[in-house]
Structures are given as structure tokens and as C-alpha cells.
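Table 4 source record.
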Amino acid sequence: MASILLGRTSMQIGDLATWVSAVATWGSAVATFAAAGVALWFGLSEARKRESERSSLGRIHLWVVVAEVGPMASALIELCSFCQRIRELDIGTHLQDGDRSYLRELGRMVAGELLNRHLAALACLDPSIGEPLARLAGRAGSLRYQISVIAEETEITPQLHKLVLSWERQAKLMLDDINQSGLMTHEQMQNELSKGE
């Protein structure tokens, strides 16, 4: 009887060990799942926080950019008007010092220096706003350089006529970028263009 009892006791201990092992395995699985869930929740919470900060930063930078885009658009509209006037002049006509100074000033205004200083911040903006503004900043630097070089010319040449036509096209592309960013509508630009004519 002792061997039966001993055999039965060892079987109960084996069942208990199996059961404890199974419970420990299940407990470990539940704890791992809970830990993964908590880690995911913390990660998503941090991502939401970063997105909120990025959005706030984007709104701040948008105000800076809006302050720059208005004067830039006005300068581009003035540049278009100036280009039309220059194209109407005959080849060989001397440019007045005032016209050359005005052209240099337009080049400075078109450059969008503040926009270029905040170029990295455009990444914080919605792509529908940031991408056209990045193109605008790139075109502005190129156009300013071209204007500064040509503003030293003293008379109208066939090459200057071609360059002025190119400037006008670039200015209109830049105005399209401003329109695509949504910071100034096409109607507002048309109104400004009609005022300049």
C-alpha cells in the first residue's frame, strides 16, 4: 500500500508541477503582451506629443513665412510690370540710374531673405504649403542673382530683352508657387497685377 500511496503522491506532485509550469508560461505570456501594449502606448503617446509640437512649430513658422510672402508677391508683381516696360523700350536705349536702382531693390525684395533663413522650418509645414514655398525660395535666390548682375547694364540689348522675358516667366512661376501654397489667392494676385498696369 505504501508503494501505491507513494506512486500516487509522486503523480500528484507531477501534476502540480505541470500545472504550475503551465500557469507560469501563461502568466509570462500575459505579462509580455501587457508590456508590449504599454510600450506601444508610450511610443504612440510620444509620437502624438512630437506631432503636436511639430504642428505648433509649423503654425509659428507659417506666421513668419506669411509676413515675408506678401511683400515678395508685391515685388514679383512689380517686377512683371517693370519687365513689360523694359521690353517696350527700343534696343540701344539707355537705362536711367533710377531704373537700375529700382531693379536692384526689386531683386532684394524678391529674394525673400527671411524665407531663406527659415527654409529648414518649411519641413514643419503641411507639404501642400511647404513644397511650393521651398520652390519659391529656390527660384528667388536665382532670380535675385540674375537681376543683380544685369542691373549693372546701362543700355537695352537684345540679350537684356531675352533676360527680361525670362525674369517675367520666373516671376509668374513664383506667383504660381505662392498661389499653390494657399497664402495668396490667384484672384488677389490678379487684382494686384491690374493695379500695377
